[in-house]
């Protein structure tokens, strides 16, 4: 084998074959570029697993010392069909050049399927462990979900918007606001694009945003991040919240179809199963849901909301009774919803959640569109009207009935691929303990 281990290559010429295309080159000599995912020396025969953006290939060398894991390399060799090799092909390597040599071994074996390493260690070295095939697969599925989100909405006349993340007041209430010193004034990191996406309905009628939002969640849970990707939708001229649910159901089914079509190898790496897209998402009012989990499963959900256990049980009911991984819970009480939620006369609202595999992934519903009702809702909640003056004013300018929802991208991804901890659905998670890497 010819090798170049000394001089590193500064430039990478274009001619190369991707791992995913090896099947088109059986019998031919090809050049691959990628990273050393794994290496093994079996009595003078070197096995190298090369990872590129399209997949992983096995390359075999005779009598060679292979470079350290994660070195980037250029390999040439002949492609042969090989049933046991990943992807069904093997490259019989003739030359190996190191493009950029790893000078340090990764902190964990990236190629290993079952990590017994402490998750905290994995996150502490996330800048390197993020390269593992499993983590890559999770992030690829998430990217596909977001692509599918945009594609569906673009095709249905929605316009993408870009709203400020530095704001003067929190739209969602609660104590989880990050305070920022804004040129000597107090500002906050946006908890959601809620008020701005509603304002933008007055411009485009149908809008969406995919952007990070911020919540100062001090408690350490498996479903909360301090920074997460919010997939927001808002649309005008609706009759009621059923239209919002119809849209979200069709949107999610389309996003999942995209994952099925484009992420087969990632789903296989993760052992993930997609939900059945042929069943309709059941819809159940919150009060009925609480009664149901109490009667059917003996769980009394205290307070005005559904607690996490009640969410899990209503998810179980949806699966058992309807074969659905999803269930909409509708008509939340006013006390459980933010001020912008459309109130009904009986103390309930047109606010709803979507539960996926027993965990809330979405809040949404129809919104208030009359300024006097907004003021009344702010007062009910002892909120500062002055802080929302511009927002209230917009509703004096002909805002139609409208509604929308937001999907937490990491929650959706984690539940879809079976991650226990939401942190592993974000490349670089932020929580109360973590600001690096
Ligand atoms: P809500 O506050 O319920 O609603 O958030 C919507 C969805 O975002 C996700 N989510 C989180 N994900 C990770 N870490 C967190 N700390 C976190 N908090 C929330 C969840 C949740 O269902 N403006 C409304 C949406 C709307 O009505 O359009 C809102 O932000 O998946």
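Q: What amino acid sequence fits the structure above?
A:
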């Amino acid at each position: 084998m010819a090798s170049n281990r000394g001089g590193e290559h500064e430039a990478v010429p274009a001619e190369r074959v991707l791992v995913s295309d090896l099947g088109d080159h059986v019998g031919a000599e090809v050049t691959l570029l990628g990273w050393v995912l794994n290496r093994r020396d079996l009595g003078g025969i070197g096995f190298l697993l090369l990872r590129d953006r399209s997949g992983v290939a096995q390359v075999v060398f005779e009598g060679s010392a292979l470079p350290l894991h994660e070195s980037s390399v250029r390999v040439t060799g002949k492609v042969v069909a090989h049933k046991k090799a990943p992807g069904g092909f093997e490259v019989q390597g003739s030359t190996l050049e190191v493009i950029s040599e790893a000078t340090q071994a990764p902190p964990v074996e990236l190629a290993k399927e079952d990590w017994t390493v402490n998750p905290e260690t994995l996150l502490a070295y996330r800048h390197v462990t993020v390269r593992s095939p499993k983590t890559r697969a999770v992030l690829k599925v998430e990217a596909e979900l977001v692509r599918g989100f945009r594609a569906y909405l673009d095709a249905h006349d929605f316009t993408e918007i870009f709203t400020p993340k530095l704001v003067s007041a929190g739209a969602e209430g609660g104590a989880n606001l990050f305070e920022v010193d804004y040129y000597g004034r107090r500002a906050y990191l946006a908890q959601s694009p809620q008020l701005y996406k509603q304002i933008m309905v007055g411009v485009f009628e149908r809008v969406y945003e995919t952007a990070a939002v911020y919540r100062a969640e001090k408690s350490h849970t498996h479903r909360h991040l301090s920074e997460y990707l919010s997939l927001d939708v808002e649309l005008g001229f609706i009759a009621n919240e059923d239209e919002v649910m119809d849209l979200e159901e069709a949107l999610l089914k389309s996003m999942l179809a995209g994952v099925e079509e484009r992420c087969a190898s990632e789903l296989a790496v993760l052992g993930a199963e997609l939900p059945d897209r042929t069943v309709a998402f059941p819809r159940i009012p919150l009060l009925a849901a609480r009664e149901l989990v109490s009667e059917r499963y003996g769980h009394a959900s205290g307070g005005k909301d559904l607690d996490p256990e009640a969410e899990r049980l209503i998810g179980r009911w949806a699966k058992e009774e309807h074969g659905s991984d999803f269930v909409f819970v509708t008509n939340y009480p006013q006390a459980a919803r933010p001020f912008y939620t459309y109130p009904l006369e009986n103390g309930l609202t047109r606010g709803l959640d979507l539960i996926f595999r027993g965990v809330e992934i979405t809040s949404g519903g129809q919104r208030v569109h009359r300024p006097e009702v907004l003021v009344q809702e702010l007062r009910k909640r002892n909120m500062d009207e002055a802080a929302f003056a511009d927002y209230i004013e917009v509703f004096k300018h002909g805002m139609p009935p409208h509604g929308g929802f937001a999907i937490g991208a990491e929650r959706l991804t984690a539940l879809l691929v079976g991650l226990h901890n939401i942190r592993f659905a974000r490349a670089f998670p932020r929580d109360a303990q973590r600001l690096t890497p």
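Q: And what stands out in the fold?
A: The chain has two domains: 2-100, 127-425.
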